[in-house]
Design goal:
homotetramer; mainly alpha; Arc Repressor Mutant, subunit A; Tetracycline Repressor, domain 2; 2 domains
DNA sequence: CATGAATGAGCATTCATTCAT
DNA sequence: CATGAATGAATGCTCATTCAT
């Protein structure tokens, strides 16, 4: 009896999780199309095949929905970066691979970058935000550690410098994303790929010397 | 008589300009406190000591208000960057001075960075926007040219590379600003000043070689 | 089970229709009291016992509300005219009956006339308007056809002349309504009923000759 | 001295009247372009070459401005109708000429008809309205008398019937104007001129018999 | 006489959230 | 669990009118 109930609970629980994810993904789609500020709960509900009120069964607040989307995005980012530059890979391009993965991840996804950086930029009401902020930081830190490990493996940094240099280089990638997403790069007639190559070259002085004798 | 009338017109005109600036500055204050998206015309009016309708005597549209604030910000940015790194200065640190000025300008002003970069982030309706976008681009371009000239003067870039390298380095500064403004830097336990120093060092291979023999 | 659900849907649907009609009727009342231009959504909502926002659950736009009221009015007009002068009636007074019904309908309803004729008077923005305009035209045409059929049945017009004469006579009735509703008739010390009788007499030359030997 | 002052007062008075008329005419122009409801005091002022506040030196209220425009329109109407069908003219077409003049006057002027009939149709706030209403009525009455005189002169009515028949026929013309101005005539595929001819024929049984033997 | 800044009430519409069913 | 009606506050903007200058 107890086991059955538990099994039933589990099934119910997993169904609930499934539906929650459905709504979360719908939200993400709407964010991409209308921008984060332009997405209303009504529209997200419609995109998910639900009515407005049903959303609140799964997310107490619009901000919780934001959080779920962001969490999902961060998990995907981590997966992508570690896949692109696995821990066991041979040295020589691990840092570059990680940084390129970081760039590609946000470049190809319409709303993820905005979600991660814009949403918590302003002086917005707090709430669940505190926890979410911690998660965002943890995810970011993990990515930094991965880049740092790559830099060490590639012989571009000592273990002590690793984190500092990882943040330095990731910062540049975020800057490039900002310039691209806001259309400034286009107006400056510069190409993201070319800039990326230039920047990565400065990371590795050996390559730099070879390229410019 | 004629002169008197003209003088009167001038006085009136300058009073108008003064009040317009008052409202613009109030808007800027509200932008800083509530974020740009969260600032309503009502609140701006209240902050300026006016009723809502009065704002429309000076700005036909909320977007025109945005424009005025942004324009003011861009003019100040340009002034600050060129002052910090004058055209006639002796080589040796002109690029660094310009980049540091870029950093300091946005670091010390609460809403200017958001204003310049996020206004065009979403899928917003257009309008006067087109013109404003052009202005923003022109201002940004002028800053890039200035940094580029510094790089050439400092012997860090050939004239052909100047623009490309200027954008590359400014991109990094913008990335740093983004990390700082969103609180990511703090959570990563990194210091903006230290990162800035690290980055500027990589710009100058001579220094780099000295630092890392 | 299925049947129950359907029944539930039906009940809900009919409740919705009922409430929609309630709002529509409240709108009509407000139109009557304040004039169509003077009626605000706020006031209509209050008259219907709702908050402002609730109106938008039933009508996406103020113009849709207009449309619903006008549609209702046109349906009632058509019903009244065809009832007053049924297709199968014996000749001799069918046209007169139809024209009198047209008169009575608009005479006794405060805002219907204004609704039908003034909504498109100004240089208003379009929208759903196009469709609504078509409906109005179709309804008017149907009434004209009915009057025309009466004229033919009564021997007052050949089938070719029917439409032309129907419009001619309906035009007069609309003129009378305009004079009445704007209070001009009263100030000219004329009586609508007497004028109507006079006009109807000119429609039928036989009667005219009898009256004036 | 006294005489001089009076002369001065007169000149001032006539200048004032002149400027008043300027504003009135500007208002009329704006009414024609934007519709009466769509005309704001600001826009009228601009069209007259004044600033907003200046209008209130000449007209205490927007409604007084309406009144002035309407008064002017009524005077013009009276002039046009009496010119088209002078008192001394030979009988035979005087009534028709007057009715045609009535039609042409309102047909060719965009806003006059709306002004005369719409403005005072609704349940609007009163005020100066009472007096204006009387003027409108007097003007209308004069036109009716003129049409009536024509009917008598043309042998279409006895002096006792004159007013009654004048109102009857003018009512039809107003109906035609309403149908035309609101676009209903076009949608019914009827032509104003043809309808007018048809109606005028029914006015004169003699002509009718000749035309349709 | 003329200006134009300022008021204050008003407008249609949107939206996150709640809750009876 | 899901619905969708309802709330209430907010938003950008317009407008007739007033009044100090």
């Amino acid at each position: 009896m107890d086991a059955e109930a538990t099994a039933g609970d589990d099934r119910q629980e997993s169904v609930r999780r499934f539906k929650r994810d459905l709504i979360r993904d719908a939200a993400k789609r709407v964010f991409s199309e209308k921008g984060i500020a332009g997405a209303s709960v009504r529209e997200i509900a419609k995109a998910a095949g639900y009515t407005t009120g049903a959303i609140y069964t799964y997310f107490a607040t619009k901000e919780e929905l934001y959080a779920a989307v962001l969490r999902d995005s961060l998990a995907a980012l981590h997966a992508e970066v570690t896949t692109a530059s696995p821990d066991g890979a041979v040295p020589g391009g691990r840092a570059e691979a990680a940084l390129r993965a970081l760039w590609t991840f946000y470049d190809t996804r319409r709303s993820d970058f905005e979600l991660g950086f814009y949403l918590y930029g302003g002086a917005r009401p707090v709430g669940l935000t505190r926890d979410l902020d911690r998660e965002l930081n943890a995810a970011l830190d993990a990515v930094m550690d991965h880049i740092g490990a790559g830099l060490v493996a590639d012989g571009l940094a000592s273990p002590e410098e690793a984190h500092h240099l990882a943040v330095t280089s990731a910062t540049w990638v975020f800057g490039l994303l900002l310039m691209t997403k806001t259309g400034r790069l286009r107006s400056l007639h510069e190409d993201a790929e070319a800039l990326l190559t230039t920047y990565l070259a400065t990371l590795n002085p050996t390559m730099t010397r070879k390229d410019r004798p």
